[in-house]
Amino acid sequence: MKKDMGRFKESITTALDLPLDVALDLPKIEIIGDVRINITNHKGIIEYTNDLIRINSKIGMIKITGQGLEIKNVLMEEISINGLIEKVEIIR
Amino acid sequence: MLAIKIWNYIKGYVIIRIKGLTLERLLNLALSKDIYLRNVNRLDSSTLEGTVSLEGYRALEEIVQKLGCEMEVVKRRGLPFFLDRIRYRKTFIFGLMLFIVLSIFLSSIIWKIEIIGAEQTPKEEIIKLLEENNIKKGLFKHRIDKEDVEGIILAELDYLSFIDVRINGVKLIVEIKELDIDPERVDSSYPCNIVARKKGVVVKVIAKNGEALVEKGEIVEENDVLISGVIESENSDEIYLVHAEGQVLAQTRYSHMVETPIVKLEKVETGNVYKQRGIIINGKGIRFLSGEIPFENYIEEVEEKSIFNFLGFEFPIKFVNYIYREVEVKEIKQDIDFLKQASKLEATEEINKQLHKSCEIISRNAIYTIDGNILRTKVTIETIEDIGKIQIISN
């Protein structure tokens, strides 16, 4: 039932041409080159070390691996990470 | 970004180091309490460094205590800390304020009066004149009315052709241009040179005072020194400054050229008239009948009729009549001898305006050249006159 509801929402947003991240409350992950990641609409930090950051979100866990990772900003809505980024994974 | 940085500086921020085991939890708690953390850097598994605002620091202290971590401040940055430090340096603050106040105070005072362009009038005289009218060094800028200063100077020195008073920084600049003045009117207590007012060939030099630098037959250019007021002593190296006086007669030349067309075009009306009507709304015109004007040569007349005129208030809509009168262009050939006479007279009159009143005319010459339709008349007048002009020697 819940899955059907999600699909229904998705088809409506596509039909109305609404931005997906706003309408469906999804996280927005923006990667600039290999030096910066901005994640909007996250749900907290799970783990944070110099070469691994795990961030919770609605669609699962976002796992970022790299070198010299540093949290540049952390806000309720947005988090931005600087450092040499090697891998971004989404673990459901 | 810069604006944010400046804002952060004004609000003040601290760089902190947190030691503990549950650092991720701490970060999430900080998030939920709306504490803005920046530049978070994991130094090792149990240490974390970050930047937090002054307000955020107080809120963070509670969380740190709750989680049993340790927090220490590494650096304090920003205006609040700077002011805190400066509170113990009262003399410094006093000095800073004094500096600012003094700079404003001193830069609103006139410190120098400069006079540009005075050749025949001694600068000291002008400064003295201003001082007598209470305009001197050390006066506040806003108390000087530039037009007033101009008026004071013009009232005393009526031979000035131009005056401009301006305040530039802490200087009051008076710029003047003089007409030639009679030697009798020049204050003879100031040293001066006599310089050439005009180019010419020297005929006679009579130096009453000062040292004549030119001889008979010499060609002098404008502004050459003729009689010098600087006299070197024969016995020693000393220099005396005197008020040079004397006459320098020189042969000078004035010329003027006039161009006149030989065949003159004259317009004669034929009596044919073509009319158009229009309207003008707020200065912009509209023509009702915009056909071609059926004449080749014509004179245009515009008649404006306002609809009503009430106590000087004009209605912005006006009627206009455009009237075109046809003309016939006739070529009239003029008598060359008559034309020569007329243009010679015209040129001579033009030269007479420039002539100095003390001059003696020795020759008058006219040369005519015909170039197609144009008659060129060049009149040259040679005179002998005193070309001396006084120039004050400035220090």
Distance between the amino and carboxyl termini of chain A: 20 Å
Mean pLDDT of chain B: 82
Give the percentage of residues in beta strands of chain A. over 45%
What is the CATH fold-level name of chain A? Immunoglobulin-like
Tally of DSSP helical segments of chain A? 2
Strand content of chain B: over 45%
CATH top level of one domain in chain B is Alpha Beta
What is the alpha-carbon Rg of chain B in Å? 42 Å
The gross shape of chain B turns out to be flat
The biggest beta sheet of chain B reads: 5 strands, antiparallel
Number of strands of chain A: 6
Number of helices of chain B: 8
The residue-averaged pLDDT of chain A reads 86
Query: Taking strands numbered 1, 2, ... along the chain, how are they ordered across the largest sheet of chain A?
Result: 1-2-6-5-4-3
> What is the architecture of chain A at the second tier of CATH?
Sandwich
CATH fold-type name of one domain in chain B: Alpha-Beta Plaits
Low-confidence residue ranges of chain A? none
- The rounded distance between the terminal residues' Cα atoms of chain B is 58 Å
